[in-house]
Amino acid sequence: MFWVRVDNRLIHGQVVEAWVPHIGARCIIVGNDDLAQDELQQEIMALAIPRAVDSAFLSIDQLVRDPRMTGASRDATLLLFSSCLDVRRAVEKGLQLDTLNVGNLHYANGKRQLSPSVSLGPDDEACLRYLLGNGVELDFRCVPNDPVHVRFS
Prior knowledge:
With 153 residues, the chain is of the alpha/beta class. It is built from 6 helices and 8 strands, in the order E-H-E-H-H-E-H-E-H-E-E-E-H-E.
């Protein structure tokens, strides 16, 4: 399974303990320009990843050119983004995806709380509308066994 998730925390307990086993991930790829240049943060995040799971921290430009993002090589891959904007940039640059799991976007002033774990600002909403308009299904769940109860349009 190829699973794409937006979660401003990136790699953390829910991802490692719930999503990795759920999709049978053998690879976690993080698409984030800042993290791709920060080796210390990469090392810290990599400590949470099980040894049997490969990982890569790529800029958005690197990500869309990476051979692991095409065909069968995407199987058993969990692709993480920290923001809706990064997902949109990747799609605009050619990343193909069918579903986006919107798992965690923290609340801040000016954001509308959509679920206990997802709050959207105007930029987030515009990005999600763009993705919907490009045929991407939105899946609002924090963990795999959560019911899909949020609808966004």
